[in-house]
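note to self: the first set is below, dont mix up w the second
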Amino acid sequence: METWQIILLCVGCVVLAAVLTFLVMKVIASNQEKNAGSKAKSIVEQASDNARKTLEEANEKARKTLDDAKEKYRVIVDDASSKAESITRKAEQEGKHSINDYKREVEQDLKERKIQLAAQENKVNQREQNIDRRDLALIEREKQIEKKIEVIEEKIKEVEKKDLLAQEKLDSIEHEIEKVASMTAEQAKEELFRRVEDKTKQEMTAYIKQQEEEAKETVEQRVKDLLGFAVDKYAQEVVSERTISTVSLPSDEMKGRIIGREGRNIRTIEQLTGVDIIIDDTPEVITVSCFDPIRRETARLALEYLIKDGRIQPGRIEEVVEKARMDVQKSTHEAGLNAAFKLGLPRINKDLLDFVGRLRYRTSYGQNVLDHSIQVAYLAGIMASELGLDANLARRAGLLHDVGKAADFEQDGSHVEIGVKLAKKYGEPDVVINAIESHHGDCEANCIISHLVAAADTLSAARPGARSETLENYIQRIEKLEEVCKSFEGVQSSFAMQSGREVRVMVVPEKISDLQAYQLARDIRDKIETEMTYPGQIKVSVVREVRATEVAK
């Protein structure tokens, strides 16, 4: 046989074997299904029988349990009814006993109250008897007093008669004295009062001198130490910031662009900012002039913005001026917040801090007012700490003492009056308000912190280099100081020294005594404080000397 025939035969055998195997498996499967069905029927029948039996047993147990429960319920109800009857009987018996006890207690209480009422009646009767006895004693005393009054009236009449006689004698004596002294009684009184007044003045002057010397011995060193410590502890640099009123130009050609055609640009700037712009022959510089430093600063910033931008025309000028105004407001607000933060002062009204920040553009005698206020706050806080006072409150009063200068160009009144109004408006403490209104002596300081603020203000203003002054104003102030001193009677000459911080007054010895010299120094001091305006303080020294000169030949 050929090979392919053998292969074909093998394949056929394999196929036949597979078919036979499939048939055998099918037969076996059908037989298993028949067996499983019969088994399942038998299992279901058996399970139903078991369930039926279990249900019957459960019903039987339930019936038995219900019968037992009914029997127990009847027993419990019978026991409860018997117990309730016994409790009721006991309660009735106890109630009868308690009612009887209560009746006995009430009867006993009534008896005791009757006894107490009887005792009180006895006391009242005794008091009535005592009152009757006192009335009789008072009547007797009244009779005795009436007798004494009659005696006193008789004595008063006798005294009046004696007074008349004494007055007649005094009149006669006064008449004789007037004849002898050639003076009336009124003239004698006036002379006596004048001598007493002169003597009292001398004694008072001597006493004041003694007290001042004693106070100086005990206080002067302490004050020097305290002020020296405060100034030494304050280590800020010397104030040098000034308000700038000039604007630098890149070239002189920019002046013509700022002026504009027929002057429309410069007029627009002046109308919007309220300043005067001065353009002269000074190369590459224009000057901004205005009494209000805020408006002057706004105009300066606006000009700088316009010069950098290069577009200078009325429409653009309005936008730039508004931007400069917003920048100035922002910078003033930040300056106020920074000042409060630097001093550690929380809870200051934001609107009031805006006024504080505006002091950044305000100067007084060449000194920046915001830096001056911060310096006063530092010094007052240091001195308050050394004295055991509230340092935060002292710094707050020092920072706000010149706040009125931020609005004195807009409101009527001095910066002290305006500062007091602002402090009251924004709810500042009474100590701060008093420090503001008393730091220039406009009213009396009613607390120690007010004195500290005034002292710190003087220290800050009197430091060398803190304030500048023109030669003309300086000469006028010196001349005014000497004239004030010469206006007093008995003054021979006066000399201002140490740039006007001390004045020496020479008096005529025959007209001014040693004690009167002290009084004259105080009078000159008071007049200087009233009539003059000056930085720092002025020392008044009255000199009285007698020189005896002879020439030996």
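second set (the one i keep forgetting abt)
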Amino acid sequence: MAYMTLYRKWRPQTFDEMRGQDAIVQALKSQVKYDRIGHAYLFCGTRGTGKTSAAKILARAVNCLHPVDGNPCNECENCRAILEGRSMDVIEMDAASNNGVDNIREIRDQVQYPPTSGKYRVYIIDEVHMLSAGAFNALLKTLEEPPAYVIFILATTDPNRLPITVQSRCQRYDFRRVDAGTIADHLREILSAEQVEAEDAAVRMIARTADGSFRDSLSLLERCISYYYGEKLTYENVLKVLGAARTQVYGRLMQCILQCDARGAVSQLDAILAQGSDLNQVVSDFIWYLRDMMLVQTGEEEAETLGMQKDDYEELHAIAMQTDLDTVMRDIRILSELAAQIRFSPSRRVQTETALIRMMRPACDDDVQSLRVRVEQLEHALEAGGGLPAKGAPAQADAEGPDHAPAENSAPPTVEIPPAEYDDYAMLLKDWKKICGAQHPFIYSLLKGTRLGYDKEQGLCILFPDRFRCRTMQEGSRMEDLRQYLNQEYGKNFRIFARALERGEQAPKVVRGTSIPGINMEIEDSDEPDDDGPASD
């Protein structure tokens, strides 16, 4: 038997085998089960989400002699005839190559004849948006009032190009992109059935690259298996086949951008391209890297959620702590514009290098987001005592170069407190996330991402990653209200104040005092903050 590609071999044969489209599957099964079949359906969605598969399953289900809970049995004569493509009752037409008026007139003439063996005559028109205006007009009357035994199933990736008169005559179902986790689970089942061994990180990488398309994921998987046939499919092998680069490579590129090291950024881009990566793929992957950084800054995303290995995630988290959300969002916008520009550009490399320079120099742009980033950088420079930077020079506090940047690996200061106070601090530290979540939503938004510290003179200290939220929390009676909440909740009288961490400053480590010289006990803040934690703003 001739070899069959994976996306054809593993095409779903029943509604129950379809993944990621539960609402649509349930609706179609119910219509078949209770004999409430519509006369026209419109399946919309991006490529590889199951539109054509659902259309073929529905065509078999309505003609099946022994349907099972709304699914075709795929064993009766009608089902086998449709599966083998020899049924006269299911007609498939590709509107991309049959888009004229004559093609629709032919269908209009055929609908006069009843089905030969099944209950319905089903017309599946794929890429229906490619029909000409005349063809749509010829289809309208038949689509609105077809014979009782005729069903039209129209599939399209661009429903906006269909006349509203056509859309209004159909039951519309929108097939959504499938999340990477669902695709990865499906790929693992296929790999097990195909007896191919693969690393979990490799499977997640393929699922993520597929961008919500089952068919794309199977095509990518087949490429990887073919390239390394008979070998275990590793994460490194997948990167080579897909022309992608490891997360650490984009981390080094981002470090150069944060340090305004233009020469280093260009050299890093050279290194990525020297590995054989396509420039379009590099830009796309860098956007995804920044997207992951944005999620780390705004939420509590874990390595598994982002589809990353643990060491890659830890490096991403460390870099995310060195910048702010506005800067990351501005960089994503610049790269998104670049991705659209270089698709057919003869000077893709130059445009990419220009975009990297723009990411380092907000002064190159005059939009609101860039101005906000420039103001924040000027604030850092003034607070660092360096005065205003020269015109055209980087406005960051570490504009002198990477050698003058704050030492990220220097040991944080230590605060030693009496055992009784230490026990109270440890109790609140353990419950800090719960305490923040119990506040008013606005107060919670201010406390999200903070850490709990301690000062020998002032007591408990809320460490904010930026001055704005710290000042806002100190306004009015907000701090006193929080103190009263803690006193009532824990039955103690706490002292508490707030301050913002300075650029490059690390949160102090709190240790328990002891009567034995040279011995203390250190408490580790095991709970990560809800978003970006105490970092340079």
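remember for set 2: DSSP finds 23 helices and eleven strands in the chain.
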